[in-house]
Write a structure and sequence with these properties.
- By secondary structure, the protein is mainly alpha-helical.
- 61% of the residues lie in helices and 0% in strands.
- Helix 2 (8-43) packs across helix 3 (48-61).
- The longest helix is centred in the first third of the chain and has 36 residues, at 8-43.
- The model has no long low-confidence stretch (mean pLDDT 83).
Length: 128
Amino acid sequence: MIERSLPKAAAQRLLQLQAMVDAIATKRQARKAASDLAQRLVALGVEPEKARHAAEKAQRNGCGLCMAKNRRGLPCIALGDGAGGRCRFHGGLSTGPKTPEGRQRALEALARGRLRAADNRRRGPAGS
């Protein structure tokens, strides 16, 4: 143990330096992870600048990206902090109504939507 043979001030300085080295190593690992994620996004077709920004944003916030495939076939680059790591647009956060009143409202809205869809099917395509 080197620390026992050192004066107290020197031992404290040594601990501070070790903490700084650890912090630098952690930052390097985080930058490497963000860079790897950005490269993966670019390989999937995301523009390089958007990929870099999204990877840095995910690294800063401590959560991953949604990565659900959007309508253009590209991965969603919104923060995925909801259910299963998905964003609010792709299934995160909402778990449905919990109270009996909320469930009743949801069923009524579903029934209204189905009636409206059936009515639209009976009328035929718009503009004809």
